[in-house]
């Protein structure tokens, strides 16, 4: 069995002081760096939105961040502008050891659709290509860490489990946003999908 470490969205905008800060987001950086040494494959994801992305509340007159809108692919939570392509906010945390990354997969670049998961956009259909990359490298087990537990990490973990990967989530190396019980809901969905939550 060949394993990969998947580090989700450890970017400035999700760390304290960022546009969509996750409490304690930066605390996990040293632990994530240390964990990289245990893996033959390390993959980073990077939330990467064009300016004016449809998930930004600023694009929806009368709407505020954390309200929702109906999109053709379902209900979308609206976010503060974040992770705009090429901005400092979209950069990885300065202390993250990006040298070890075999692949950096960017997501959320289509202006009309959000992409929480590392595998599919929020229509749950459009692939990012990560599945093919992992399979062609013979990787069948994934360990996931990163931000935010209840959005991009849980969507990625659930999709990976559904695709047949063996998935472990290291909660000590994840931090969440927790909007209206989203943390408990995410834990329930991950466990139901067969993700080992450690
Ligand atoms: C994320 C909301 C919007 C995440 C990304 O990384 O969890 N959450 N974009
Ligand atoms: Zn985003």
UniProtKB/TrEMBL annotation:
An example Gene Ontology biological process: pyridine nucleotide biosynthetic process
Gene3D superfamilies xref list: Isochorismatase-like
Keywords: Hydrolase, Metal-binding, Pyridine nucleotide biosynthesis
NCBIfam families associated with the record: PRK11609.1
Family the UniProt entry places it in: Belongs to the isochorismatase family.
EC numbers on record: 3.5.1.19
Residues annotated as domain Isochorismatase-like: 4-197
CDD domains on file: nicotinamidase
MF terms (GO), sorted A to Z: metal ion binding; nicotinamidase activity
Pfam families associated with the record: Isochorismatase
Associated pathway: Cofactor biosynthesis; nicotinate biosynthesis; nicotinate from nicotinamide: step 1/1
Top-rank lineage group of the source organism: Bacteria
Protein name: Nicotinamidase
PANTHER family per record: LD05707P, PYRAZINAMIDASE/NICOTINAMIDASE
Matching InterPro entries: Isochorismatase-like_dom, Isochorismatase-like_sf, Isochorismatase_Nicotinamidase
Broad enzyme group: hydrolase
């Amino acid at each position: 069995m060949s394993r990969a470490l998947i580090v989700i969205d450890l970017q400035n905008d999700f760390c304290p002081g960022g546009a969509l800060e996750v409490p304690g987001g930066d605390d996990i950086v040293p632990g994530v760096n240390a964990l990289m040494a245990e893996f033959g494959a390390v993959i980073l994801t990077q939330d990467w939105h064009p300016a004016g992305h449809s998930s930004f509340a600023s694009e929806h007159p009368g709407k505020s961040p954390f309200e929702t809108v109906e999109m053709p692919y379902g209900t979308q939570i609206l976010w503060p502008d974040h992770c705009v392509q090429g901005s400092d906010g979209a950069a990885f945390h300065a202390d993250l050891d990006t040298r070890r990354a075999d692949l950096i997969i960017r997501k959320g670049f289509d202006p009309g659709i959000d992409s929480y998961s590392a595998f599919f956009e929020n229509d749950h259909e459009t692939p990012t290509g990560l599945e093919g990359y992992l399979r062609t490298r013979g990787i069948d087990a994934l360990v996931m860490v990163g931000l935010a537990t209840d959005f991009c990490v849980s969507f990625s973990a659930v999709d990976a489990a559904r695709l047949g990967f063996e998935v472990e989530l290291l909660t000590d190396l994840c931090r969440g946003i927790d909007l209206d019980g989203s943390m408990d809901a995410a834990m329930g969905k991950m466990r139901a999908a067969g993700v080992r939550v450690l």
